[in-house]
Amino acid sequence: AAPTAAPTPAPTPAPTPNPNIPSVGNGPTTGDQKPPTPPLTPSPQAGAATGLGKGPTALAAAFGDPLAAATTPTEPSAGNGPTTGSVKPPTPPLVPGTPAAPGPSAAPTPAPTVAPTPAPTSPPGQLGIGRVVADNASFMGSGQQTATAIAQRLSGGDASLQALMTVRPGVEIRSSTDLSLSADWRLPTLSQAQIAMAPRAAEAALTLRAAGDVQLNASLSTGLRASPSGDGTWLGTSDRAGSIRITA
């Protein structure tokens, strides 16, 4: 038999290099060295450098630095106008399309008013005839209707009994010492219209009561009217004159 050729060995892959050994191109390791500390302030640019972004150029030296002039905050621009910090903004509209309401205006200063003149009052310890007449009119009413109501109540509606009644207001003036009349007092009389409206009404009764003396330094009357002749005389024309009592 003919001889056979020797078998060719199968190729094996190249061995993988050990990763612990750096490659030739890596250079020396720096794993055990700290990086340098960064500078706290930027390093100044070289004064001799020229060109954009590196230092003052010949144009900037001739006309000034426009960037530095534009960023100076000391003076406001001409377009700012006056400040509006103390002005309230207008009220926003409540409905779309409604114009904004004007801002609130200052409240108007009220015009000064004249102080009212106090009503004249009598000195302490004195009483005028006007107060007596006002109290009687307040009690009896403008039409003497109080007299009619009292007469109907006391008579129980008996007309014959009412015909015998007269109802009059009464005032009593008291003093713990002396009582003196220093002005004329004439109690008012009823008019014909008042008598027609209240047939049972009569004129007022007056009582002067004092712990000491009662001094009449002026006239005191009831049921009298001034004379039409105007000569200062008085006429007794009332058949419903009031009564006067003096107690001392």
Automatic annotation (TrEMBL):
Residues 1-129, 227-248 are annotated as: Disordered. Residues 57-72 have a biased composition (Low complexity). Residues 21-32, 73-86 have a biased composition (Polar residues). Residues 1-20, 89-123 have a biased composition (Pro residues). It comes from Heterosigma akashiwo. Signal peptide: none annotated. The lineage of its organism: Eukaryota, Sar, Stramenopiles, Ochrophyta, Raphidophyceae. This is Uncharacterized protein.
